[in-house]
Amino acid sequence: MDNVTPETLYKELSKTVIGQEGYLKSLCNAAWLHSLRYQHYKHTGEALDKPKQNILCIGPSGTGKTLAVEQLGRLLNLPVVIENASMLRGEGWKGRSVSSIIARCIDAAPDKNEAEATHSIVCLDEIDKVFKSRPGDQSFLPVDNLLTFMAGSVVVHTDNNRTRKMDTSRLLIVCLGAFDGLEGIIRERMAGKASIGFSAKKPAELPEGSLLPYVTEDDLHTYGISHEFLGRISLITHTNPLSLEDYNRILIQSDASPVYQYDRLLHKTIGVHAGITEEAARCMARQAMGSKEGARLLARTVTDLLQPELHTVAGDASVDSIEIGCGVDNSLVAYQTHMGREDLWEDFCTGSPETDSQTLSSVPLSCIRGRNEIVELAKSIKDASPRKVLLTEEETIAAVYILAAAIAFQLVENNGKGMTMDHVAQMLDRFYDLDTRDMKCFCVHPLEHIGAEFFIEAEKHVRDWDTKIVYARQMLLDYCNAWICSHGQAEQ
């Protein structure tokens, strides 16, 4: 992401996480400072450990606490490790140790680079469970190890005779938890205990809504969190309970909408849209309001409703969308519409040749001149195309061999030097008028013989030769678009 500031981060996160302005702004401020340290380290090699960023966020389940951290890692292109703190055990006990988190950071870093891993974002989810264990479990708890980890020190982890170590001083650590029962502690403090007798004071009038904005360190200590742990927290924030309007916006507007996620997957692969009516969104929002699961209930409800329609959609080409709506009794229902789906292969035939040529010319033809390497490149081109799911197995095999033949013949010319995928596309165009019956008789170069053999393999799996060339060309264009996208992001 370019131009990283707290404001730009907040703007992006708000597209996904709904109704949590205070939490997102606090998280974005901390992430921005973390990003400054990381960029300084990358450019100078100097590590800036302070100020140490450890955040504690309190809030109901399903309000976007973890989702915000995950999305933040994607925006900053930094490793993110989500750890269920309730599963951690003290060092020496059977189970997952706190020190294992550093191994996960290293594994998540680009090329498992340990220097990059030191700037990871570590999310300790369900941290409240660590402090609500039974008295007999105290010796199993990882609290002391967490104190060391969060303070910033060199942590050593040994697993399967492999030892790794990492300085945790530069980690951004975000602790999350629902803290069930904490509001009762806040309420008791704010209301004050009524005394007995004529001098009893009238309890203070409490504010409406959630009391989490009024939490204090003393409240958290009463809950069971040690002063030592709280001393390692630099910022305490919270999420709000979601309103009816928030749930509605999650379904209709959020990038994390389960409806949008199904729509994106189905439309990009088989040309089928998924949607939800406003009435159905309001109905589903009301159901979520009455649940303790929060936004998680939305995802499960959408998935449950779509199951019967998903089972039949692939085999019925007349289906153009799956909609979620309300039935006559106001119950939620999913149904298909049958307007005929768009032809995802049509784009190449009707697109701009100039634009396609520019795209193809931007991607180099890089391949060793060997049979296996050529086939592997052809398969990679096929794998990059979302449209492969529209083809039968025979059609897919034919398209791969046609691509392999084009690559082989193109590598003969100029030894493959300075060539792009546009040259492969031009070779595919020449295949339309090619008579393959006596091809091997005219082959001289070893690669020409290999190319001819690929043709023969393709013919075993093909009926409509010209159509399969169109498929191969579209796969090639999809591959180039994906290549340009990934290399463009890498440069950023």
TrEMBL record:
Q: Which domain of life is it from?
A: Bacteria
What InterPro entries does the annotation carry? Answer: AAA+_ATPase, ATP-dep_Clp_protease_ClpX, ATPase_AAA_core, P-loop_NTPase
Instruction: Spell out the molecular function terms from Gene Ontology.
Output: ATP binding; ATP hydrolysis activity
Q: Where is the signal peptide, in residue numbers?
A: none
Q: Where is the AAA+ ATPase domain?
A: 51-172
Q: Which residues form a coiled coil?
A: none
GO BP term, pick one: proteolysis involved in protein catabolic process
What this protein is called in its record is AAA+ ATPase domain-containing protein
